[in-house]
Specification:
The chain has 14 helices and 15 strands. The protein is of the alpha/beta class and about 425 residues long. Helix 7 packs parallel to helix 9.
């Protein structure tokens, strides 16, 4: 089959910009579409291309090559869902004579598959799709009717009943690497500002060991934590060639501490000379500082930690299973080791002026090198969405960018967004100093 995998363009809308002229809050993502490279790695025997509309906004014109695609696959996070639906409709019209099959996967398809039960889309792949997408392609190529757990046929106007998949290590297809070559033309555009410029992405694990109320990651594996082998991870690092900085794109890179220790040891033995950035929980740092020291020796230069809040009550409501005390201890340990910290924080819509000021003071006095505050957003399908669904006042998914308040704000909206913008400017100054 002629298969085209599409990464949606930068999209999503901004209330602060549209209503109040605040242009400093729009978030632009420039990372490579690793999820599509991973899917392509298990499609041997088919002609596969990746069109990255974030790196190449005019890339849709490539779809006409070789008579057009047999199958077009989209990935999408929540704020991209409407754009993908629109693009799917355009593809169906452009290639009406060939009638390409359109498949949608990714985070939003995993959390809220029914949202894509629409005209222009044929199949939805939920969760970790490296194996199930290949099985779908095989069935379609052979003219068989797919009956694959985790894959659902769109039945617009009919019964929509997704079949659940029991994810296992087999879904990783550990022996087959991502097709990094399919995005090589855009490699210079894949950067990680604030950390070290040109970067390559490597996945070490899928899923998470925890289930924070706001997070969509557990939906990708139905709550399981599945890790790649050390040899597969080292293979993928090697495939990225001379790229100096490797970003592990897992929700929780050290979720299996024994496996993490083994990987760090192998990297040290091989003297790879790379720098690494990884996601780690604050409680992991506190429980096992020696693991972080070992990883620093292996080249770990920075970690991303979801601190989320500086209030234990709010942390409890998020099911974060951490505390301000643990966050402070983790920061102290990482500062002593010499590892930079990228800190994620969540601004609750019920913040008042003092809450904004208190968070600003906390971050400004902390050793966090790069603070990233976002606005609490209940993503459909998450526990937080189920808890707050009746309170949501903004349902247009274009605004689910984590820089818009989709819940009522305690402050008047203009004041809320002005304080949020002021906080971002303050943190930009903090970054320059660090």
């Amino acid at each position: 089959m002629n298969i085209v995998l599409v990464n949606p363009p930068n999209c999503g809308r901004s209330i602060p910009e549209e209503e109040y002229g605040i242009t400093s809050l729009k978030m632009i993502f420039r990372g490579e579409p690793l999820a599509l490279s991973v899917l392509a790695g298990n499609l041997a025997g088919h002609e596969v291309r990746i069109v990255d509309l974030k790196a190449e906004p005019e890339g849709m014109e490539k779809l006409a090559a070789d008579g057009g695609p047999d199958l077009v696959g989209f990935t999408a996070v929540t704020c991209e869902a409407n754009t993908v639906i629109r693009l799917a409709g355009e593809i169906k019209k452009r290639f009406a004579g060939k009638s390409p099959i359109v498949v949608v996967g990714g985070h939003h398809a995993s959390c809220d598959p029914a949202y894509f039960n629409r005209e222009g889309i044929d199949y939805i792949v939920m969760g970790l799709g490296k194996l199930s997408f290949r099985l779908l392609v095989d069935d379609l190529a052979a003219g068989r009717t797919p009956a694959i757990p985790g894959v659902v046929r769109v039945r617009q106007g009919g019964v929509f009943s997704p079949s659940l998949r029991k994810y296992s290590e087999a879904d990783l297809v550990d022996e087959l690497p991502p097709r990094y070559d399919l995005v090589e033309a855009h490699r210079d555009k894949y950067v990680m500002s604030g950390v070290g410029g040109k970067v390559g992405f490597v996945v070490t694990a899928f899923g998470c060991t925890h289930c924070c109320a706001f997070c969509s990651i557990p939906s990708l594996t139905d709550g399981r934590y599945l890790g790649h082998s050390a040899e597969a991870i080292l293979r993928d690092i090697d495939l990225l060639g001379d790229i100096p900085l490797i970003r592990f794109v897992d929700a929780n890179t050290f979720g299996d501490r024994a496996a993490a220790r083994m990987l760090a040891t192998r990297i040290i033995e091989l003297s790879l000379g790379k720098k690494f950035v990884a996601d780690v929980r604050a409680d992991t740092v506190v429980a096992d500082p020696d693991l972080l020291r070992l990883w620093h020796e292996a080249g770990l230069s920075a970690v991303v930690i979801g601190f989320e809040e500086i209030d234990d009550g709010r942390l409890d409501r998020m099911n974060k299973r951490s505390s301000l005390a643990k966050n402070l201890t983790a920061l102290s340990i990482l500062a002593e080791i010499g590892i930079r910290v990228i800190g994620d924080f969540i601004i609750s819509p019920d913040y008042d002026r003092e809450d904004f000021e208190r968070l600003g003071r906390f971050i400004d006095s902390s050793p966090i090198a790069l603070p990233i505050p976002s606005i609490l957003t209940p993503i459909p399908g998450t526990p937080l969405f189920r808890q707050l669904q009746q309170e949501i006042t903004l349902t247009d998914l274009d605004y689910y960018t984590f820089s818009n308040a989709v819940l009522p704000t305690r402050l008047a909206p203009k004041e809320f967004y002005t304080l949020y913008s002021d906080l971002m400017k303050q943190l930009h100054h903090h970054i320059k100093k660090s």
